[in-house]
Amino acid sequence: EDVYVLNGDGYVQTLSYDYEEDREDCTYTYSNGYLSRITYTYYEYVDGEWVKEEPKEVTEYVVSDGNLSKVFSNDYNEEYEMTVEMSSTPNNMNIDYLYDQWLGSENEFLLCIAGKRYRNLPARVTDGDDVTTYEYTVDGDGYVTKAVEKYGNYTNTYWFYYE
Question: Is 0.70 surpassed by the pTM of this model?
């Protein structure tokens, strides 16, 4: 069961996942309305009690001029950094589907409850030696109708239809 608690601005403040023998609590922090940090705390069910695991994971989001520029994370003492180059394509869809896909968050972006939307969609995301690129096709009103994601030898194509 996923339990979202929203703050006064309608953005997710905490999210808890309960599984049979595992639990994850996430705390969200915002700066100027943009998501700036998610802190993940993990628990294991031992002898009838939830026992907190260490260390906790922290993901930080760096926003500049309304756009995401970097993502830093430590996952069990392994650190990684993603650099984001933005396209000129506005992030004006009615759901933040593409950010939900590439940031790997559960549904916070899909539900539009993870703070203000970034102004534009990503063009290139670099994570170590891995590079993912994105190309967009827009309709006459500037709305994305097609997004092509390329990663190594893989290509994913997303089509968007508006009614």
Answer: yes
Beta bridge partners of 4: 15
Radius of gyration from C-alpha coordinates of the chain: 17
Closest CA to 114 of 27, 4, 47, 35: 35
Residue 91 DSSP symbol:
-
pLDDT at 134: 92
State yes or no: pLDDT of 150 exceeds 90.
Answer: yes
Q: Which residue has 């703070």 as its token pair?
A: 115
Distance from C-alpha of 83 to C-alpha of 4, rounded to nearest angstrom: 28
Instruction: At 48, list the tokens.
Output: 């009838």
Count CB atoms within 10 A of the CB of residue 56.
16
- pLDDT recorded at residue 86: 92
- Whether the CB-CB separation of 120 and 133 falls below 8 Å is answered with no
The count of other CB atoms within 10 Å of the CB of residue 136 is: 21
The continuous run of DSSP H or E covering 4 comes out as: strand 2-6
Sign of CA dihedral 37, 1, 100, 103: positive
Residues 6+ positions from 53 with CB-CB distance below 8 Å: 41, 42, 43, 44
3-state DSSP assignment of residue 109 = coil
CB 62 within 8 A of CB 68: yes
